[in-house]
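INTERNAL AUDIT FORM
Audit reference: QA-55
Scope: verify that the stored structure record matches its stored sequence.
Auditor: D.O.
Record contents follow.
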Amino acid sequence: MKYSLPTNEVSAQNQLALVKIYVQKSNHGKRAVRIDEIKALSPVKSDRISKCHRFLVDLGLLIKEGHRYRPSKNAIKISGHFADGSDSTAQEDLRALVAGSWFGRFVEEFLKLVGSASRESLVERLLIAAKMPDIDLNRRKAGVLIDWLLTANFIQKDSNDSFFLNETPFLPDNKHLSSSELTGTGVSSAGEHGARLNLTIEVSLSELDPELRSEIMNLIKQKLV
């Protein structure tokens, strides 16, 4: 086996919930936590918690310290966004984390090559990439990998139930633009004779009202002058 796979006994969503509990019980990473400290809060059955750890450590959400576990900085940040109700920001950060994982890199390369793939095909390719000795025995584990990819919005499903890559560009430092950045009020000075504006807008202008579209284009032109 080249890479670790998540247990198929716990869903990706419940594994993520487990990480949030580690963040809470560790006081946001200030101390490492024993398994018996989180059992009462966990949606995961007690005898299955330890089965989640290796994959969560490899993904970069937990850090193993002896028989204890501490949430990583990424885990704390993602959990914080979820707690604040900023689900889209949390998902963006999770997508960035998945993009750096072995299965994220492989799926990105594979789907860029073929465009889209069925769940069965993607499962088999992932197991080959992970160098699993028994593909049939590990299909359900690879299925949980796909659930992680979907949870992070790294891949999406089309009307034919085939998966394709979410190719929306990552924002700088994986942060969403603030309202001031969108309106152009967050201009950074480039000297007394001019200013520099870094502006990223994702919008389908063709779907907007013609008058509104004209106003947006005029605003963009003014900011670029």
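Auditor finding: record pair retrieved intact. Confidence is low (pLDDT under 50) at residues 174-203.
Action required: none
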